[in-house]
Amino acid sequence: MKTALVTGANKGIGFEVARQLAQKRIYVYLGSRNIENGLEAVKKLKAEGLSNVEAIQIDITNDESVKNARAEIGKKTKVLDILINNAGIYGGYPQEALNATADQFKSTYDANVFGVVRVTQAFIDLLKNSDEPRIVNVSSSQGSLTLHSDPSYKYYDYKGAVYLSSKSAMNMYTVVLAYELKNSNFKVNAVCPGYTKTDFNGHRGPGSVEDAGKRILKYALIDKNGPTGKFFSEENNPETGEIPW
Q1: Which pTM was predicted?
Q2: Residue 100 sits in a domain of what CATH number?
Q3: Helix 102-109 and helix 161-180, axial crossing angle in degrees, nearest 10
Q4: Which residues does the annotation mark as catalytic?
């Protein structure tokens, strides 16, 4: 049975991704900053008949927590096949370039960028033991410099210096990580799940968590001929999914 770790999986898109992975008969480590919330999420999935799920406490902004999560999972398996870096924050308000505070940038980058780095580096050894390791960094088309420079982009007026720039930085980490792993069996991609109705955006998004989950799973389960080092948003490009950085 393949194994997967999903961060920020106790609710929203992360929870749905954990559900869909479990439905594919993959053993899922459901990462949650608050272990009680994680246990409650696992309870819901087990009530649906999905027994191949387990809660793991992991605060991606805390080095010790990430190390502990790696140690805990390492006691249970020597192989991790899939890593979904889903956990992140919006960063609060204001988001204007002239009004957002340096502290806002620091806390948002700590989760959205440094958190991805912490988790990826902590679990890379287990991923290297997989025959088909996959890393999906959950991004946003809002992090595309090209799209946000184009007045015809449908979210052109939805600017936000803090959140958008954090996703742009995470995207560059994805590019470099994929490059460093290009001569291996790894597939590393950034995937935008679309503007989805969740707590993250006050349930304003029009998309469903089910569709968001499917978009992420598509790249978590790609075969050896699949892409790597790419940026996908099916909401913005329904034909091929790929969008510019």
Answers
A1: 0.95
A2: 3.40.50.720
A3: 40
A4: 163
